Amino acid sequence: xxxxxxxxxxxxxxxxxxxxxxxxxxxxxxxxxxxxxxxxxxxxxxxxxxxxxxxxxxxxxxxxxxxxxxxxxxxxxxxxxxxxxxxxxxxxxxxxxxxxxxxxxxxxxxxxxxxxxxxxxxxxxxxxxxxxxxxxxxxxxxxxxxxxxxxxxxxxxxxxxxxxxxxxxxxxxxxxxxxxxxxxxxxxxxxxxxxxxxxxxxxxxxxxxxxxxxxxxxxxxxxxxxxxxxxxxxxxxxxxxxxxxxxxxxxxxxxxxxxxxxxxxxxxxxxxxxxxxxxxxxxxxxxxxxxxxxxxxxxxxxxxxxxxxxxxxxxxxxxxxxxxxxxxxxxxxxxxxxxxxxxxxxxxxxxxxxxxxxxxxxxxxxxxxxxxxxxxxxxxxxxxxxxxxxxxxxxxxxxxxxxxxxxxxxxxxxxxxxxxxxxxxxxxxxxxxxxxxxxxxxxxxxxxxxxxx
Length: 453
Description:
By secondary structure, the protein is α+β, with helices and mostly antiparallel strands. 34% of the residues lie in helices and 23% in strands. The longest helix is centred in the middle third of the chain and has 26 residues.
């Protein structure tokens, strides 16, 4: 094994990073910056994972993540390190809506956290949940703070403290739109650290929400990058090149052990290649079961994003703000969410030149790999018409595109790390939680721990 020497004179280790999504790129950069010789292997033909770019109607658009959570300042600090801090932008303040029943659409309450209301008497909360639902929520939330504080899932906590109406009409559509899972499958401590201790301290869930929100930095809960979040992946790829990281694309892992991986290429006749290292990091999502020589405990679902670029002056008024989250069971709608991207991001509206960009997301089996592009385009336009409260003419659509992503269940639902070989560490959304803030923070902690060894 070739040895690389750090500036201090100590012999650096060699690391293998399996997976070229954001988590893998972050770990590889931190290890390489500390003097470790890093090889990164990625099965596809590109780096960045769910942070990428595609061109629709001549507009370079995000193909995956288009914003990040500002909580804790993790992503902002990292973007500053990469020289992208000056490109951070906030979304339009008009906010999103939620869709219920047959055309019932309401602006999302402004005092909530993950949809959990901070003020059950607020008009915007009563409008969505209803007078009976908010009265029941207030009754339940009057219980002592210890009641429900041991619930570990978002769904369990809300159900005990505020009841089904708040859970179904507010929390479920928001959690589903942001995290692609039901609240019953999402850890409270992962997505809202400090909420359960605040419940015990404040004596009610509503007061706990306000307490946690008060500790957050002022401003929007999310932000983006001028030009799109794909700039983050592009900057990380440039960093790996600068630091001399060896990148292997189209490299499939056949065997993963502590201290080595065996690769096969895209070509059928490619001979297996064994790479050895002192550090092995697994940075893959739903494919982890296959990498580890077995099958995933749960089959990953499919998230399909349908993007429409169209011209319609009626959309200039942003009739549903920055987008719409869809409650389960909403009539006449197959999408789970719609983002009015040119209303949400002023920089994109400037570049679009009077056109509008709509992005709708679908879960399987509503939309599957067998759904044709034409079928998806028609479905997306019909759903957008319902969600925006206006009939959109197919002739106004200049271009459309689809992107498909896997939707692995969170670690607590599948036991993601139980079959890791000794000496292999794992990073990525399946263990860190969804969202760039969680993924980057966890990947950096792992890199730091590895270097400390």
